[in-house]
Amino acid sequence: MALRLTLLFLLLLIIEIYAFQSIKMVVKNKWIMAIYLLISVAMLLSVFYNRNTTNSNFSIHWIVVLSKISGFLYFIKAIFLIENASYSAVKVVNSNKTFLSIYLFISITVILFIVYQFTKFDRSVGQTKMTMITLGLLLLVLIPKLILTLVLFFEDICRILSVSISKISGKSSDSFLPERRKFVSQIALGLAAIPFSSLIYGMTFGKYNYKVIKQQIFFPDLPDAFDGFKITQISDVHSGSFDNPEKINYAIDLINEQEADMILFTGDIVNTHAKEMLPWIDTFNRIKKYQYGKYSILGNHDYGEYVDWKTEKDKEANFKAIKGLYGKIGFNLMLNEHTYIQKGSDKIALVGVENWGVKFKKAGDLNKASEGLTKEEFKILMSHDPSHWDAEVNKHPKDFHLMLSGHTHGLQFGIEIPGFFKWSPAQYVYEQWAGLYEKAGKFIYVNRGFGFHAYPGRVGIMPEISVIELKKGKSLV
After folding, report:
1. Which of 80, 279, 316, 370 gets the most CB atoms within 10 Å of its CB?
2. How far apart are alpha carbons 434 and 447 in whole angstroms?
3. What percent of the chain has pLDDT above 70?
4. pLDDT tens for residues 96-129?
5. Spatial contact of 148 and 89, defined as CB atoms under 8 Å apart
6. d(CA 429, CA 18)
7. Coil, strand, or helix at residue 287?
8. DSSP state for residue 306 in the 8-state scheme
9. By mean pLDDT, which of 19-33, 207-221, 322-336 is the weakest?
10. Concatenated DSSP letters for 129-180?
11. What is the pLDDT, as a whole number, of residue 477?
12. From CA 381, how far away is CA 206, in angstroms rounded?
């Protein structure tokens, strides 16, 4: 807690210093600047007082209100400073007035458009194509400019140190800070261009750049008949986000090309509403039949809990319709239950639970789903959220050999070099976020997702069709 507050204080202090310097360049009156400083100090104190007190007496209500106002004003200041830093970098590289005017016009227009769209967001409707475009535009603008700001911030530190050394050594300096160096601004713009171009690629091509990822998993106690048994897994379809039938049909063709014995779908068929999937029913019915079946479970988005419903009856009707969607595309929906997959004289148990997540809905009932199973039986568990694995599954006395999940999407953003390197901001939220993980001879495979949600694209972490082959032998990962 103390570290968080310290970091917050430093962040707000930096914002205040930059804001003060910017305002000072425009406002020359010392009294006005003194009043501004007093207001800034009051804002800063209100934010920290509100975060450090649990007292809810009416006497401090005005401080709580001031803290909320201060938080909003700091947000505005942060946006201004990011824009100012970006403009500064662009101006150093190209000082043409017409070019700079066009740059400013585009920046202001984009900001106003984003603010306008967020004010129009309707909780009773939820995510729409326009909200996805808006979020994509926000990331497209914000991330590159944040990189620009960070580079120029470090340059400012160097400039301050340079001036300080000059002052100590007795050398004169014409100004508090020397002019920005052009090559630093060029480097900053070059670095900012990387996420900018990547985000554009992700929104145009990356979101449908399907990858078939094949994974062998070894189990010493796998029944002999299932040695070489192949499972195709898809997850997180999010059909409400689709906008290209040709690409979805291509993905279905990829699924059908895989020589698997069974297909499993680990949840999130829609974003929120059952009607999102209706245009895609025929497309997903093209998924071929499998000798050992087609099974599915629910994901967190399948409960319709991310919008405000007019009545509870409407919500229940939507949930019932979503559960029916899985059957309409030929999948057997498993709701806290298990079934046996028989091959020859051997069998394995397939267990399917409803959504259970540490930070999400906990409808999954592992005890109910595994009732009647023994510890010794080979079990594959479908559970949408990978946080279930460490929180409950690995502690369960019945031992689940393999858990198949999705949910994270790998945050749809990261860097992945198969077999060598894998990084995404998702790893700071989920210990298991993409691919195969092992603990004490038990495994979890996290599918990177078939569709996309919120950000309308994928950068580095591509949509996935998994093909998992069960092998009998020494446990390897």
Report:
1. 370
2. 6
3. 84
4. 999 999 999 999 999 999 989 988 888 888 899 9
5. yes
6. 32
7. coil
8. S
9. 19-33
10. HHHHHHHHHHHHHHHHHHHHHHHHHHHHHHHHHHHHHHHHTT---SSSSPPP
11. 47
12. 30
Alpha-carbon dihedral 65, 71, 76, 79, rounded to 10 degrees: -170
Q: Which residue type sits at 115?
A: V
pLDDT digits (tens, 9 = 90+) for 22-80: 666 666 677 777 777 777 776 666 666 666 655 444 445 666 666 667 667 777 777 88
Rounded Cα distance, 271 and 273, in Å? 6
pLDDT of residue 447: 98
Helix, strand, coil share of the chain (percent; to 5): 50, 15, 35
Give the closest residue to 218 by CA, choosing from 436, 404, 450: 436
Q: How far is CA 453 from CA 274, 300, 389, 463, in A?
A: 16, 13, 23, 12
352/365 Cα distance (integer angstroms):
9
Upper half-sphere CA count for residue 21 (Cβ side, 13 Å):
11
The answer on pLDDT for 337 being more than 60 is: yes
| Backbone conformation region of residue 64, classed left if phi is above 0, alpha if psi is from -120 to 50, else beta | alpha
3-state secondary structure at position 38: helix
What is the H or E stretch that residue 471 is in? strand 464-472
- Note whether 52 and 25 are within 8 A (CB): no
Q: Is 383 exposed, middle or buried (0-12, 13-18, 19+ CB in 10 A)?
A: buried
Can you read off the two tokens belonging to residue 276? 């999102």
Q: What is the CA radius of gyration of the chain?
A: 27
- 433 touches 427 (CB < 8 A): yes
| Helices and strands (H and E) in the chain: how many | 11, 14
pTM metric for this prediction: 0.87
38-52, 53-67, 426-440, 457-471, range with the lowest pLDDT:
53-67
Strands (DSSP E) contained in 334-463 are: 337-343, 346-352, 379-382, 402-405, 415-417, 421-423, 435-439, 442-446
Strands ordered across the beta sheet of 442-446: 337-343, 346-352, 379-382, 402-405, 442-446, 435-439
Q: Where are the beta strands (DSSP E) in 374-441?
A: 379-382, 402-405, 415-417, 421-423, 435-439
3-state secondary structure of 70: helix
